[in-house]
Design brief:
Helix content: 40-55%
Radius of gyration: 25 Å
Oligomer: single chain
Largest sheet: 8 strands, mixed
Number of strands: 10
Length: about 475
């Protein structure tokens, strides 16, 4: 029997669709899952008549593969990944490759890479974005781990990945150990930010402008034709138009948001690295606040605020909303790229920032026309420290300023929640100021804790302490 090209462990929807994608590109696949029923249903159903085999055990699966063996896991992050690795190890030969395609935390990927390399095996931790449809038709793939493994999986990954207009695959090597999963984590953090921004704009349209769902649908449909063109704007357009029994389904959905942890990991990493991930932080906290549904319902009976009352030109304000959303989106990506730059320095990764923008240009949840401009910026200056100093982004943000301030001030004046929009504007105002009130903060720290401070009339790195009370 001819040996099979690649194995896939975990036949959830993502695993099944990746297997079908690989098979459609000419690769033979063997699948395995601890649930025999799931595997058999897949083989008899979607995989019927295709070059996809099933293995009843891990031992059988390994024996069916060509060398070096390539085994991709699509199982839940954490202990399940380690359990599958331990199950595989006894049957592997030196140089065989294990791939984790789940949303694992990057320190776990770093640990697993070291652990498996010490045993003579190779490991890849790869982000896979695009959801069920992306997995089947072409996801964004962000691999990192053992560099020696990349040449063996590159043809498969790049063939199944989404392609941009010129045919370039949205997949390339990211870096050593946990770099791939770190980049996927940042992708998900930006996704949190984008989604929160869109939700705030939706609430302003609904509660301040009094727009109905058909009106909002038309606005998002129009926005998706211009510079805001993106997957998330596109699906928001569709969601706002969807009706059940003639009634907007969205109105029947409980307003408590879930999360799987990647956004939280991004915020924790930003704190560890000292990177100002303020907008994404607000998006994560926005979800946790939404989860306090019962408490919010009780609070709404006790606490009061202004009643929204819009008196301006609705069409002008909708244009202000578009500008504010675009400017805030620039801040979200700016902060995500700063986090990656800090991580690259801390973990000694040589990240290709323009290449990452290209990987996100198609297939993934945050795909948008906008990313082409980010790639151009980093191609021109690979050492770029902040997107806001690039002429294109500088001009866009500055030309949106009046609209941005109008939207945020109007929302706050009318008591409408907008943590991400306002956080984005605050970051911009903080970053563009050459002098912040941290001088007073340092004086306070020195006063109560003798933490010392630097002076503007002395060289950087020279520290001073003052006896503030003269005793």
């Amino acid at each position: 029997m001819n040996k099979i090209n690649i194995a896939l462990i975990g036949t959830g929807v993502m695993g099944e669709n990746l297997a079908l994608n690989m098979e459609s590109k000419g690769y033979s696949v063997v699948v395995h899952d601890k649930s025999r029923e799931k595997v058999e249903n897949f083989i008899k159903g979607k995989a019927a008549g295709k070059k996809i085999k099933d293995a009843s055990s891990v031992h059988e699966l390994v024996s069916m593969l060509e060398k070096p063996r390539k085994i991709m896991m699509m199982v839940p992050a954490g202990k399940p990944v380690d359990d599958v690795i331990e199950e595989l190890i006894p049957y592997l030969d030196k140089g065989d490759i294990i791939i984790d395609g789940g949303n694992s935390h990057f320190p776990d990927t770093t640990r697993r890479t070291k652990y498996l390399e010490e045993k003579g095996f190779l490991f890849i931790g790869t982000g896979v974005s695009g959801g069920e449809e992306g997995a089947l038709k072409g996801p964004s793939i962000m691999p990192g781990g053992s560099p020696e493994a990349w040449p063996y999986v590159k043809p498969i990954f790049q063939s199944i990945a989404a392609k941009v207009e010129d045919g370039t695959p949205c997949c390339d090597w990211v870096g050593e150990n946990g770099a791939g999963h770190f980049v996927k984590m940042v992708h998900n953090g930006i996704e949190y930010g984008d989604m929160q921004l869109i939700c705030e704009v939706y609430q302003i349209m609904k509660d301040l402008l009094g727009m109905n769902y058909d009106e909002m649908h038309k606005v998002f449909k129009e926005w998706n034709k211009g510079e805001l063109n993106s997957y998330l704007i596109e699906i928001t357009r569709d969601i706002l138009a969807f009706k059940e029994d003639g009634y907007p389904l969205i109105e029947k959905i409980l307003d408590t948001a879930g999360q799987k942890g990647t956004g939280k990991w991004a915020v924790i990493s930003s704190l560890d690295l000292g990177a100002p991930l303020t907008l994404i932080g607000e998006a994560v906290y926005g979800r946790t606040l939404s989860a306090l549904k019962d408490e919010r319902v009780e609070a709404s009976k006790i606490l009061s605020g202004p009643k929204p009352d819009f008196k301006g030109d609705k069409n002008e304000f909708i244009e202000d909303l578009r500008n504010a959303l675009y400017a805030s989106k620039i801040i979200s990506y700016t902060q995500g790229y700063i986090l990656m730059r800090y991580a690259a320095k801390e973990y000694d990764w040589n990240l290709n920032y323009g290449g990452i923008a290209l990987m996100w240009r198609g297939g993934c949840i945050i795909r948008s026309v906008f990313l082409g401009k980010i790639k151009e910026a980093f191609d021109k200056n690979p050492k770029l420290t902040n997107l806001l100093i690039v002429p294109f982004f500088k001009d866009k943000v500055e030309s949106s300023q009046a609209s941005w301030r109008t939207v945020v001030s109007s929302a706050i004046t009318n008591g409408i929640w907008c943590p991400a929009l306002s956080s984005a504007l605050n970051y911009f105002d903080g970053f563009r100021n050459s002098r912040l009130p941290a001088n007073l903060l340092q004086a306070q720290r020195d006063y109560f804790g003798a933490h010392t401070y630097e002076r503007i009339d002395q060289p950087r790195g020279k520290f001073f302490h003052t006896n503030w009370i003269g005793k």
